[in-house]
C-alpha cells in the first residue's frame, strides 16, 4: 500500500502523477441550471449569448409586364411601340368595343355630308347638259360639243366644290369626336357620347381651319405633280390628333406633326396609304349595289351618255351614308393610334399612359 492508503502499483512502478498541462475540473465552476431557469442563465462573464440567426428568406421577385404588351394593355392597344398589326388591330378593337359611339358619330356625320352633297347636286343640275350632249348625235359640230362640255365641266366643278366642303365638315366633326374617344380608349376609361362631344366641341372650329389648310396644301401639291402632294399629306397627317389632345394652336399642331413624322416619313406614309386603300376598297364594295344603274351603263351602248335620275342620286347617297358609317371611322382611328405610337417611340408616352392608367412602371436601371 502506498502512503495515501491506496493500493500499490506493480513492483518497480510508481503511481502516475497528474500532468501539468492536463485540465483539471474546477470545483467552483457553476453548473447551468436545468428547466425553466435555464432560459435566464448567463455565462460567468455576464454576457448574454446572441440570439439564433433567422432563416434566409429570398427577396420577392418583382413581376414586370410581358414584353408583348409592354407596360400593359389597359385599353385597345398595348403600351409599347406598335407595329402595323397593332395599329390596325387597335382601330378595329375600338370600333368593336365602342361600336355605339363610333358608328353613331359616323352615321351623324355621314348623313350630314350626304345631305349637303345631295342638295348641291340638285341645285347645280348637270343632267340638262348631259341630255343636250346625248341629243346632239353624231351630226354635232366640234363647236357645239365644246360648248356643251364646257357647261358640263363648270357644273362638275361646282358640285365637286360642294362635295369637298361637305366632306371637310364631316371629317372635322368625326375626327374631333373620335380623337377624344380614342384618348380615353387607350387608357381603358369609359367615356359617354355627351362627354366626348362636350370636350371636342370647343376645338371643332379651329380644327376645321386646320383641315382646310391641310386639304389645300395637298390639292396645291397635286396640281403640280403627285410627289409634292405626298409631302404635306404625310408630314401634316398627325396635326389633327395633336391639336385635339395637346390643346395647342393650329400652327403648333402642324409643327408637332412635322416633328413626330421626321425620320419615319415612309413608315407613316405607308401606314396611312394602307389604311386609305382598305377603306376605299370596302367602301366601293358597299356602294356598288346602290349605284347599280351607273354600273349597268358600262355594259350598255357606249355611244349613249348615262344621265342619272333623281332617284339614282338619292339611292347613291344612301349607299354613301352606309359606306361612310361603316368605313369612315377606320382611317380616323388609325391616324390617332399612329400619333400615339409616334409619341411612344420618341417621347416615352407609354410610361405616361401607364401611370395615368394606374399601372406600376418598372424602376429605371441603376448605373454601376
Oligomeric state, counting identical vs distinct chains: single chain
Q: On the 0-100 scale, what is the average pLDDT?
A: 77
Helix % is 55-70%
Q: How would you spell out the order of helices and strands?
A: HHHHHHHHHHHH
Number of E-type strands = 0
Radius of gyration, in angstroms, nearest whole number: 42 Å
SS field, number of helical segments: 12
- Low-confidence segments, given as residue ranges, are 1-22, 36-41, 61-65
Structural class, please?
mainly alpha
The outline comes out as: elongated
**Biggest beta sheet summary:** none
Portion in strands: under 5%
Distance between the termini: 83 Å
Describe the structure.
The protein contains twelve helices and no strands. Helix 1 (84-97) packs across helix 2 and helix 2 packs antiparallel against helix 4 (142-185). Mean pLDDT is 77; it is low at 1-22, 36-41 and 61-65. By secondary structure, the protein is an all-alpha fold.
What characteristics describe this protein?
62% helix, disordered N terminus, 368 residues, mainly alpha
What's the structural blueprint in terms of helices and strands?
Layout: H1 84-97, H2 99-123, H3 127-136, H4 142-185, H5 193-224, H6 226-235, H7 239-246, H8 250-261, H9 265-287, H10 292-297, H11 310-347, H12 349-356
Task: Describe what is shown at a glance.
This protein is mainly α.
Amino acid at each position: 500500500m502506498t502512503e495515501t492508503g491506496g493500493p500499490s502499483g506493480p513492483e518497480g512502478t510508481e503511481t502516475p502523477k497528474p500532468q501539468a498541462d492536463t485540465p483539471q475540473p474546477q470545483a467552483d465552476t457553476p453548473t447551468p441550471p436545468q428547466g425553466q431557469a435555464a432560459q435566464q442563465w448567463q455565462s460567468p462573464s455576464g454576457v448574454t449569448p446572441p440570439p439564433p440567426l433567422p432563416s434566409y428568406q429570398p427577396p420577392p421577385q418583382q413581376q414586370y409586364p410581358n414584353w408583348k404588351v409592354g407596360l400593359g394593355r389597359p385599353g385597345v392597344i398595348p403600351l409599347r411601340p406598335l407595329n402595323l398589326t397593332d395599329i390596325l388591330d387597335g382601330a378595329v378593337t375600338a370600333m368593336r368595343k365602342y361600336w355605339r359611339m363610333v358608328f353613331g358619330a359616323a352615321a351623324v356625320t355621314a348623313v350630314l355630308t350626304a345631305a349637303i352633297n345631295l342638295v348641291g347636286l340638285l341645285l347645280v343640275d348637270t343632267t340638262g347638259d348631259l341630255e343636250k350632249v346625248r341629243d346632239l348625235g353624231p351630226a354635232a359640230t366640234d363647236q357645239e360639243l365644246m360648248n356643251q362640255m364646257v357647261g358640263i365641266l363648270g357644273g362638275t366643278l361646282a358640285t365637286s366644290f360642294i362635295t369637298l366642303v361637305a366632306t371637310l365638315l364631316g371629317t372635322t366633326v368625326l375626327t374631333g369626336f373620335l380623337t377624344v374617344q380614342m384618348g380615353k380608349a387607350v387608357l381603358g376609361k369609359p367615356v359617354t357620347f355627351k362627354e366626348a362631344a362636350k370636350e371636342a366641341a370647343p376645338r371643332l372650329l379651329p380644327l376645321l381651319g386646320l383641315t382646310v389648310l391641310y386639304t389645300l396644301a395637298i390639292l396645291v401639291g397635286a396640281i403640280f405633280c403627285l410627289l409634292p402632294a405626298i409631302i404635306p399629306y404625310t408630314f401634316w397627317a398627325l396635326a389633327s390628333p395633336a391639336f385635339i389632345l395637346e390643346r395647342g394652336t393650329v400652327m403648333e399642331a402642324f409643327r408637332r406633326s412635322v416633328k413626330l413624322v421626321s425620320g419615319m416619313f415612309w413608315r407613316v406614309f405607308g401606314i396611312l396609304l394602307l389604311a386609305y386603300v382598305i377603306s376605299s376598297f370596302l367602301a366601293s364594295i358597299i356602294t356598288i349595289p346602290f349605284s347599280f344603274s351607273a354600273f349597268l351603263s358600262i355594259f350598255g351602248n357606249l355611244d349613249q351618255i348615262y344621265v342619272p335620275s333623281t332617284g339614282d342620286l338619292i339611292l347613291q347617297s344612301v349607299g354613301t351614308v352606309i359606306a361612310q358609317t361603316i368605313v369612315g371611322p377606320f382611317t380616323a382611328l388609325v391616324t390617332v393610334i399612329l400619333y400615339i405610337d409616334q409619341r411612344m417611340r420618341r417621347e416615352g408616352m407609354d410610361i405616361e399612359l401607364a401611370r395615368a392608367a394606374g399601372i406600376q412602371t418598372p424602376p429605371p436601371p441603376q448605373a454601376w
